[in-house]
TIGR04190 family B12-binding domain/radical SAM domain protein (Candidatus Altarchaeum hamiconexum), 576 residues
Amino acid sequence: MTTVFLHPPGIYDFRKRPVFIGAMSEAVPSTPVFEMYPMGFVSMAHYLERHGHRARIVNIALKMLNSEKFDAEKFIKRLNAEAFCIDLHWMAHLHGAIEIAKICKKFHPNTPVIFGGFTSTYYHDEILTKFSFIDYVLKGDSCEYPLLKLIENLNKTDKEDIPNLSWRKNNIVKSNPITNVPETVNFVIDPKFMLKLIIRDMDIDANLPYRSWLDEPTMPILTSKGCLYNCVNCGGSSECYKRIYNRKKPAFMEPDKVIEQLRLNEEYIKNPVFFLNDIRMGGKRYYEEVFKKIKKEKIDLPVVFELFSPLTEEFAVTLKSTFAHYNLEMSPEDASDDVRFCAGKNYTNEDVENSIEIALNNDCDKFDLFFMLGLGKQSKKSIYRTLDYIDSVIGKFKKFKNSGEREHKVYPFISPYAPTLDPGSIAFENPARYGYVVLHRTLEEHYNAFDRYSWKDFFNYRTENLSPDDIIDLTYDTAVKLSHIKRKHEMVDDRYVKNTEKQVEISRDVMKKVAQISKTGIGINDNEREINLLRDEINESMKSLIHKNRELNWPRNRKSLNVYVMNILGNILRRL
Ligand code: SF4
């Protein structure tokens, strides 16, 4: 029997319902369907297999995205599973996760349905109280061992000794403490294991982490779990880790494991490695040891690092001496220091500009700057000031090549934080203090909101200055204005600007139509032709506003995993 990991789409069934997801996924590699499954799926599946169990990953979201004909119900009905594991990590997956769980239980009433992830942890009690088709919640940030224990003890009545588990006993919700909190992160994601699953199931898209993975595979390295910082709207802040996931301090990946992961990436993925979280959180000794080993092993991959605090000369020099190519990412959120401080980030614009300066002086290939809109204390004025600031930063750091051509290494982005304030985050618990008003508190309220038609309905908050309508309007307005700024600096051409304007026009038009449906309560069967037409328009509107595929991606090596998989599949087919 197999433990089946199912990754749901954000909204089920986005192909049938006229639902307008808007710009929710602008800052992540997924499409608006949120088809990217969590890395934890691979580590848990691998862990189960290493302990003699069989596991399968099915990216339901991607299968739905890739084929109009894919029937999720029929597919799930045919599965023969020992247990279904469904991720509900971030709130964006709630609707899909609940619907997929219902389908699992409908066709397999005796097969346990297990939820996991941050959102599941925060709402574990409500999940088990209100949603009878979900049997277990595994809490915390590390569930490999608890899942193994659960799978091995599914038939036992008493499950008190399974760490991190919430469950029902005689209709009463029991919550075992979160005691499985490993002090190191030592799980290496092995692309060979993922390839093994693809080949064994003969189902490529079921196993892919996201749509473009074969063409543009990335294998991020999670060098740590936990955080040292307290951004108030983040469900993964230091305070949240302590209060909700029982992690008192961050855990780090041992340097040798980092090397092992990089070696695997070098062999199979070949593309840039994204170091998730700021490696400096482990301290100077930690990252110096990692970098020393990278040099010794002559690992030559382009890398991307996140900066949770300003860059120092000393770190930049170390990066320069270790990597031939590196990119950096920093998220100042807003150009107003006040808004940024209120968001929990304690650095100034001067610090941001110093960081860029240091990076560029130390051969950084690209410096991405992320700004957000929809934050507490922000106002329309502060958001437009942020655009002016972006304009000045691009101008300040553009360089001229010998040929006279402009060269840009600083890429600013502005995208909505919306539509949900992370449940459990510092601001969610104490909204007034940070300029927020929370509109939905319970999981059920969130589910009902996601069951509606438009991302405007999905908002679980407003700010003291901005309503959901304002945030949406600003999203479209700033997208156009930013494209004009980038054109002014010759970062993009006229076509780019026209595309953005067209995209915004389509989105605004779709918003109006969907609002009308929402108001009149028209059902999806009321006027199928109209609904189908609207669905086509919605699909058109789903193209990225910030052209992230072009601007967010990093330089690629030409030989991708696609070639590798095709070679393997070719070899297998030849042998059949
Ligand atoms: S957003 Fe802030 S709190 Fe959250 S992980 Fe990043 S640095 Fe940590």
